[in-house]
Amino acid sequence: MSNLEKYTKIFTESFEVDAEKAKTLKYQDVEAWDSIGHMDLIASLEDEFDIMMEADDIIDFNSFEKGIEIMTKYGIDMNA
After folding, report:
1. Does the predicted model carry a pTM greater than 0.90?
2. What is the pLDDT of residues 16-74, one digit of tens each?
3. Residue 78 domain flag
4. DSSP state of 30
5. Is residue 68 in some structural domain?
6. How many CB atoms lie within 10 A of CB 49?
7. Is residue 80 part of a domain?
8. Among the four residues 31, 42, 43, 60, which has the most C-beta atoms within 10 Å?
9. Is residue 32 part of a domain?
10. What is the Cα gyration radius of the chain?
């Protein structure tokens, strides 16, 4: 499974949406992506990719697309 597939899977499982919907998600687009859901998402991503995000990145992580940008900052190749 590629890193992008793993990343997408975390979104689909966290917010109970399909992959196509996940790719367009922004913070609070779905009820599950509230402040608690946000921290669960971050924890899942940190566990899966063995990273520890800085507070500023956690705050800035406000969409699927922005998340990809942030993940690459931590050396996660989303094309691998």
Report:
1. yes
2. 999 999 999 999 999 999 999 999 999 999 999 999 999 999 999 999 999 999 999 99
3. no
4. S
5. yes
6. 17
7. no
8. 42
9. yes
10. 11
State yes or no: pLDDT of 15 exceeds 90: yes
Calculate the dihedral angle through the C-alpha atoms of 11, 22, 36, 52, rounding to the nearest 10 degrees: 50
Q: What tokens does 63 get? A: 């969409």
Per the structure block, which two tokens stand in for 71? 């993940």
Q: Where in the sequence is the domain holding 31, given as residue range(s)? A: 3-73
Distances (CA, A) of 36 to 4, 14, 27: 23, 11, 11
Structure tokens at 46: 């940190």
Provide the domain count of the chain. Answer: 1
CA distance 4 to 59: 21
The CA–CA distances, whole Å, from 42 to 5, 23, 33, 39, 57 equal 16, 16, 11, 5, 10
